[in-house]
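Open question from group meeting: does this chain pack into something compact, or does most of it stay loose? Before anyone orders reagents, we agreed to write out a predicted structure and look at it together. Recording both the input and the output here so the notebook holds the full record.
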Amino acid sequence: MKLFQLALFFIPIAFSTSCSEAQSQKTKEESKQTSNNEIVIGHKLKFQSNVLGEEKELYISLPPKYDEHVQSYPVIFTFEAEYLFEATQTTAKYMAARSKMPESIVVSIANSEFNKRHEASYERWNGLPDEYIQFFEEELIPFIETKYRTNDYRTIIGLSPSTGFLFECFLKQPDLFKSYIALSAHLEWDRELGSKLIDEVMSKNNDPQYAGTTFYMGRADSDMIDFDGAEEAYQEAFHRLENYTHNNVKIKIDVLEGEEHYLMSLAGIRSGLEAIYPNTIWRNPGKKGWDKNVNYADEYYKQYFDQLSELYGFDIYPIETAHGYGFSLSGWINSAQRWGTVDQIIQLAELGIQYFPNSAYMHMALAEAYKQKGETNLAIRSGEKSVQLAQEFKNENLNHLNQRLNSLRD
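Structure tokens returned:
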């Protein structure tokens, strides 16, 4: 029996030279290396950073159907790629599939050497925060924006010493990131002598430069015993937040029960992303049951995602397909086909094509609804478009879609 391989493909790139390689070409290069025995969750890039004076390695994961879809995506950056990349990619994928956050690109910076992680700590702890801020601002973020379809909603995740960069960047260059997830955050380590990290973050609450910012700080409960001053620092932070009402900076502090210093990352990433995309806002846009008199496309999808887009400042799309009918547009079309009307199917499929113009599924759903309504010419036209897109994007259901197109012609 052949073993499955979890694959991260390596693609070398010189950062100081042209780095606007088309994404479609990258996908073609990757497809040559893949086989049916591999599960590919991302790829690696290497480039030379002039600011840091060294070669850096990135782990990158793109959302499902990235090449087929057309929207821009928020980006989640992390340090500690060897440790945090897979956990972040998996957590973001699961949450997006359940309509708990937007689909996102994940970019992780590898340590290469264990002690390199300390470079992202505070300056007074021999870190290089200013150099790393310049690295992100002048090299890494422009590189990612050139190579991929991104928007300017960026999250940064650090772990233990690399959380120092998060605080330094938050205070010195607030326009680089909209949200911060500090895992195993050492609130007992003062950034500057006489300062308190919680006070420094809270002090920006009324500063308009920080509008819409979220800062999550998490820690394992075992650290309250294992690290001197940790429990006192967190108790003080909880006390300071008792009467805190966020205006521009939302702050969430966690002490996670039953966790330890590094293993808390799994729960911490989930909790941090939930702070940015809270369950009170991110919900299943539909409802139980089915009402044949409701325009679900408009009332339960477009309005909902338009509101989310306005809140976060970038276009947020629904999920096209997901593990569970109630959380995706294709699932709701399926429900309309079972319990709804042909007009509801058409409304949902047309909205789906607005979001996902290259979706073979959406075009075929629309075609079959047209056929059901007696609009044979429109049905065949949409069915042919579905098959054309399936061929272009190498849809694994191409044969089945061809069969459905033939049925439309009968």
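Observations to bring back to the group:
Strands lie at 5-12, 38-49, 54-61, 73-78, 105-109, 150-159, 179-183, 213-220, 249-256.
Confidence is low (pLDDT under 50) at residues 1-6, 10-33.
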